[in-house]
TrEMBL record:
This is Oxidase. It comes from Streptomyces hydrogenans. InterPro entries: Pyridox_Oxase (IPR000659), Pyridox_Oxase_N (IPR011576), Pyridoxamine_oxidase_dimer_C (IPR019576), Split_barrel_FMN-bd (IPR012349). Its cofactor is FMN. Residues 42-147 form the Pyridoxamine 5'-phosphate oxidase N-terminal domain. The lineage of its organism: Bacteria, Bacillati, Actinomycetota, Actinomycetes, Kitasatosporales.
Length: 220
């Protein structure tokens, strides 16, 4: 067996003490449960629980996925930011739907969010960017995300210039920097279990339900 296969076979999931989850006591809508699980992930020492995978598909229907940073989760939905001119930005312009996947292994938990994507106003994107770090502004000012890079030196030069501008002009605008909101149509909470009796609770938007949400358990 190669080192790779040896390492791969030696790894386990769900072999630590995992928290209990009783879907019967879960809130009536998913946002409250997401906030509770997020805070629990932070308290449990989960590293970077705010970095979900974001899946999109363009006009050709081919799926794509990458990591982004969660900027908020509120009544409007799950917020993230990126360049409208990036690959994901173009895909979202063609097909404004996405899925987010959070995995918090310390607690054996996964959260999946799917739904239509809307774009916040530029004023909101600007405010969001300027509430962040100089590094975040410098990264946004560097621009050209997902374009082919001719050489590392070209990046170093553009990044130096962007950092200098971010430091000298903290109010500088990054016109393509866009705040996206995934409006939840479905949100699924997965609690892993050592005996593989994983619990899956899915909230599905249902205008006929008093809470606006149908809740259902899924086979693992
Ligand atoms: C931990 C982490 C956080 C990231 N956060 C963001 C983000 O908030 N926005 C963003 O545009 N890219 C972010 N990236 C980079 C993306 O994963 C990706 O490389 C980039 O957005 C280009 O994706 P695209 O070509 O599919 O558009 C992050 C990457 C990592 C590893």
């Amino acid at each position: 067996m190669s080192d790779f296969h040896h390492a791969l076979r030696s790894l386990r999931v769900w072999d630590t003490d995992l928290p209990a989850f009783d879907p019967a006591t879960a809130p009536e809508e998913p946002l409250a449960l997401f906030h509770a699980w997020f805070l629990a992930a932070v308290a449990a020492g989960q590293t970077e629980p705010h970095t979900p995978s974001l899946a999109t598909a363009g006009a050709d229907g081919r799926p794509d996925v990458r990591t982004v940073m969660l900027h908020d989760a509120d009544d409007r939905g799950w917020h993230f930011a990126s360049h409208a001119t990036s690959a994901k930005g173009r895909q979202l312009a063609d097909r404004p739907e996405a899925a987010l996947g959070f995995y918090w292994p310390v607690q054996g938990r996964q959260v999946r969010v799917r739904g239509p994507v809307t774009t916040a106003s530029h004023a909101e994107a600007y405010a969001d960017l300027h509430a962040r770090t100089t590094g975040a502004l410098a990264a946004a000012l560097t621009g050209r995300q997902s374009e082919v890079l001719d050489s590392p030196a070209a990046l170093a030069e553009a990044s130096e210039a962007a950092w200098a501008r971010a430091e000298a002009e903290p109010d500088a605008d990054a016109p393509t920097w866009t705040l996206y909101v995934v409006e939840p149509a479905e949100v699924e909470f997965f609690q892993g279990d050592a005996r593989r009796r994983h619990l899956r609770l899915r909230y599905r938007r249902d205008p006929g339900a008093a809470t606006g949400w149908a809740r259902e358990l899924l086979w693992p």
